[in-house]
Amino acid sequence: MRSEVKALPAEFLERLRRILPSSQFDTVANTFAEPKPTTFRVNTLKATTADVRAELEGVGFRLKGVAWYPDAFVMETGRLRELQETAAYQQGGLYVQSLSSMLPPLVLGPQPHEEVLDLAAAPGSKTTQMACLMRGAGRLVAIDNNRVRFYRLRANLALQDARNVEPLLRAGEAAGRMFPDRFDRVLVDAPCSAEGRFDVREPASYRYWRPGKIHEMVRKQRRLLAAGLAALRPGGLLVYSTCTFAPEENEGVVSWALASWGETVALEPVELPGPQAQPGLTRWQDVQFQPAMRATARILPSAQMEGFFLARLRKKSS
Fold first, then answer.
1. Secondary structure (DSSP) of 70-122
2. How far apart are CA 159 and CA 300, in angstroms?
3. Do residues 123 and 156 make contact, with C-beta atoms less than 8 angstroms apart?
4. Minimal CA–CA distance to 109: which of 221, 189, 184, 191?
5. Where is 233: in which H helix or E strand?
């Protein structure tokens, strides 16, 4: 493990050592000290992938396509600040987003003319991506209760021309009461301890980490997941995701939901479009999770990817 990684909280590193296979610990830990390239996806509501690529390469950017997502690119040359000065960026023809963050909408797979719910939606990266996947057709309700982030969401929706999105400044926990058994698909990209985004060069990314924060997040995540399941119609699909390693926030929350909802909810295998993932944990410390947790997916950090967790839950028809 690189020496600079030791700047991260010692207790976090010890937990990570127990979460990961021993052969992968050093490789994963070192990613916290390595810069990741700028990545973005084309906003197909306003531009074509070919036109955006031609515009950017015409002004000197070198781009690499993403094999598992034709509308996404990795910048091989150029800086984010320079990208933000382009017409494509300023007119909403693209959205800067990490590759891992693009996975939950792809796994959820919203379709045109469906009714879809996005809980904890601000500032709108996944919301606008889902609007593109729906080709602007159907209803996409985006809920967030953080006023500052909510207005960023509204601004992004306007710039991206995501007209089928209905933003609501409300607590996501109320969604089940507001929309019982309503939506075809629900995304719960839950607030979390964000361990997958730690960067030793940015102390603010890990400064406030502590084990107590994990337990605080679990309480919020359970309420949001319960609300999302209540708002999901029978037969509908929900994707639960976080950008953290903490099993309490991942397999622990999903296990809690399965135990709470009983036979009305089933876990389905996560089918990723391209990136390799590890199956979810079936045990953490003294807690035994259900064997079904192996159907969840853990994305490990790499040169291009952030750490992420994804689970697919199906609400059974009565």
1. EEEEEESSS-HHHHTTSHHHHTTSEEE--TGGGHHHHHH---TT-EEEEES-T
2. 32
3. yes
4. 184
5. strand 232-242
Rounded Cα distance, 193 and 205, in Å: 10
DSSP designation for 312:
E
- Residue of 76, 74, 93 whose CA lies nearest to 84: 93
Other CB atoms within 10 A of residue 294 CB: 16
Residues 108-138: tens digit of each pLDDT = 999 999 999 999 999 999 999 999 999 999 9
User: Per 3-state DSSP, what percentage of the chain is helix, strand, and coil (rounded to 5)?
Assistant: 40, 25, 35
Q: What is the pLDDT of residue 75?
A: 97
Mean pLDDT calculated for residue range 258-262: 95
Q: Quote the CA–CA distance of 276 and 300 in Å, as a whole number.
A: 8
Name the token pair of 213.
Answer: 């924060």
Q: Do 283 and 78 form a contact (C-beta atoms < 8 A)? A: no
Would you tell me how many other CB atoms lie within 10 Å of the CB of residue 207? 9
Give per-residue burial for 152-168: e unless 16+ CB within 10 Å, then b.
ebbebbebbbbebbebb
Catalytic: which of 200, 243, 300, 305?
243
Locate 173 and state its tokens. Answer: 């926990």
Provide the 8-state DSSP code for 264. G
Beta bridge partners of 284: 287
**Which tokens is 263 given?**
């036979």
Give the angle 198-200-206 at the CA atoms, nearest 5°. Answer: 45
- Catalytic, 243? Answer yes
- pLDDT at residue 177, as a whole number: 96
CB < 8 Å & 24+ apart, contacts of 278-285: 280/250, 280/251, 280/254, 280/309, 280/311, 281/19, 281/247, 281/250, 281/251, 282/251, 284/19, 284/247, 284/248, 284/251, 284/252, 285/18
**Are the CB atoms for 157 and 182 separated by under 8 Å?**
no
